[in-house]
Design brief:
Number of helices: 5
Shape: globular
Radius of gyration: 17 Å
Structural class: alpha+beta
Distance between the termini: 25 Å
Number of strands: 12
Largest sheet: 8 strands, mixed
Bound molecules: biotin
């Protein structure tokens, strides 16, 4: 993937959601790799309509525009590309992570980062994706009473030292473009194989009221889960994407 003329990253002190800013930018013609970061979001969102909370200035809030050459129906793979890329970026800082289906990044069984890929139909049948990533970088404490699906952790808690949020952002954007370039050259199979290698083993995941242990990832991105009654089910990837 050869990217020319990537504009300088846009950094905002505050916005509703960096995904919204990146989407508008994509609609105005932002090229692949265009990046938006913010110190604080007033309406940060996660998957399944959840709110993404982040204390001002302490964590990474980043959205990157992609313009994949694929059909919109194949956009689900981007969730896996993005989760792997975030895991790659964390490794550069000495943070070893595991993956929870479809696109959460865990350290010591706790959530250090989440990914929200949103697709946007553009004029002329074209489409763009906005890959939104929240990484808990320097937050030292998390509310005990919040209804977390998975208890959070930050890089700082894991490593015992603070990181430069901007450097983490640069690594995430670079690793994302690199993983996506690999996918375009070698196909989805290599992404899914690498995702499997980092899958959190015996980890309980939820889908609405349902719960199950993630056990294996199918070639179409579905996860095979073991349900509490011991039987197996496959959950699909529609859940992995948000749509504008
Ligand atoms: C999740 O775990 O449910 C996904 C969380 C994604 C949060 C990021 S923060 C930057 C970008 N802007 C948003 O509003 N959401 C994503």
């Amino acid at each position: 993937m050869h990217i020319e003329n990537v504009p300088a990253p846009r950094h905002l002190v505050e916005c509703a959601s960096t995904n919204d800013i990146a989407r508008e930018w994509a609609r105005d013609g932002a090229p692949e790799g265009a990046t938006v970061t913010a110190d604080f979001q007033t309406a940060g969102r996660g998957r399944r309509g959840r709110i993404w909370h982040s204390t001002p200035g302490e964590n990474l809030l980043i959205s990157v525009v992609l313009r994949p050459p694929d059909l919109l129906a194949d956009a689900w793979i981007l969730a896996f590309v993005a989760a792997l890329a975030v895991s790659d970026a964390l490794a550069e800082f000495g943070v070893v992570s595991q993956l929870k289906w479809p696109n959460d990044i865990l350290v010591e069984g706790r959530k250090v980062a989440g990914v929200l890929v949103e697709t946007s139909a553009l004029s002329g049948g074209d489409w763009a994706a906005v890959v939104g990533v929240g990484v808990n970088v320097n937050q030292a404490r998390f509310a005990e009473d919040a209804a977390y699906e998975v208890r959070p952790i930050s890089m700082r808690i894991a490593l015992g030292e603070e990181m430069a949020v901007e450097k983490v952002g640069e690594a995430v954007a670079r690793c994302l473009l690199s993983r996506e370039a690999d996918r375009r050259s070698h196909g989805a199979a290599s992404i899914l194989a690498n995702w499997r290698e980092r899958m959190a083993l015996d980890f309980e995941i939820k889908r609405g009221p349902e719960r199950g242990i993630q056990s294996s990832l199918e070639d179409d991105g579905r996860i095979c889960v073991q349900l509490p009654d011991g039987t197996f089910a496959r959950w699909g990837t529609l859940d992995a994407l948000g749509t504008f």
